[in-house]
Design goal:
Elements lengths: L1 H19 L23 E13 L2 E15 L4 E16 L9 E18 L7 E11 L2 E14 L4 E16 L2 E19 L2 E14 L8 E16 L2 E16 L2 E2 L2 E2 L5 E10 L1
């Protein structure tokens, strides 16, 4: 009898802890996909991004991209942030068909800013909706990116589903003139609470690269690449997210070989860490 009572009390305790544990997974349950959530008014958070990318055909390719970001909740629906971008790249071509030239450099890539305005809150409305704008500037480079962020929560917020529609314009200075490029991306992810404070899920990315600007000038399709992989998130007073993504053989375009976009890395490992200041 005592075992029955002990088992019942233990089960009740687990259920109670599961329901009342503070979980801030809406902050960043994904590594690449954004949710439609923002921060409370006046809250400040530091976030560190690290992306390790490797393997391209015909070359030894290794790249680390870093982003240090400070976010501020202007209001419960409006978030502003600024971040510094820096990278480490090592490329050793093995043959003439390698997509990149030799490189071995560490550099500061510039600054970016981010503004997110939430129209609908996934916790109070049937769906979450937010709009995102990101201008960026660096040595010989300019960028402007816009996103539509969608989010839907299921099963009392234990399951989070999100999707992003991204359009990016890029200007790069080469030989005393500006080269124009653009990208159209579709990102989606689903993450489920597997334990108190822990979420696990998967992400799918579709990236389309163009020479020229999609709307403002003539353009040509360069390549389409798909990435997919698992993601793991822990969220409490501080949080971290880890995602491992592999390129899928679904690509197409002028720089595609055996279904893989040869100018895009085959593998990515993305780590994000955040803490309230």
């Amino acid at each position: 009898m005592w075992r029955t009572w002990a088992g019942g009390l233990a089960a009740a305790g687990i259920v109670f802890f599961w329901e009342v544990s503070p979980v801030d997974a809406e902050d960043a349950p994904f590594a690449a996909v954004y949710t439609a959530g923002t921060m409370p008014t006046g809250e400040v958070e530091f976030e560190q991004w690290t992306t390790w990318a490797w393997q391209k055909p015909g070359e030894d390719f290794r790249a680390f991209e870093e982003r240090s970001e400070v976010e501020y909740g202007v209001s419960d629906r409006f978030l502003l942030s600024v971040y510094a971008n820096y990278s480490r790249t090592r490329i050793v071509p093995h043959d003439a068909g390698a997509p990149d030239g030799a490189a071995d450099e560490t550099k500061f890539d510039g600054f970016s800013a981010e503004a997110i305005y939430q129209v609908l809150d996934a916790d109070r409305d049937s769906v979450g909706l937010a709009f995102y704008v990101e201008p960026g500037i660096g040595a010989g480079a300019r960028g402007l990116e816009g996103k539509v962020l969608l989010q839907k929560n299921f099963l009392d917020d234990r399951l989070i589903v999100a999707a992003n529609f991204n359009l990016e314009y890029i200007w790069e200075r080469e030989d005393h003139h500006w080269e124009h490029g653009s990208a159209l991306e579709f990102h989606a992810g689903a993450s489920y609470r597997i334990a108190p404070l822990w979420f696990a899920g998967a992400e799918l990315l579709n990236e389309n690269v163009y020479r020229g600007h999609l709307i403002f000038s003539d353009n040509s399709h360069v390549a389409t690449a798909f990435y997919a992989g698992p993601t793991l998130h822990y969220g409490d007073e501080w949080w971290l997210t880890l995602s491992a993504l592999a390129q899928l053989p679904w690509g197409n375009g002028r720089v595609v070989e055996h279904g893989f976009a040869s100018n895009s890395e085959r593998f990515r490992l993305i780590f994000r860490f955040g803490i309230e200041l």
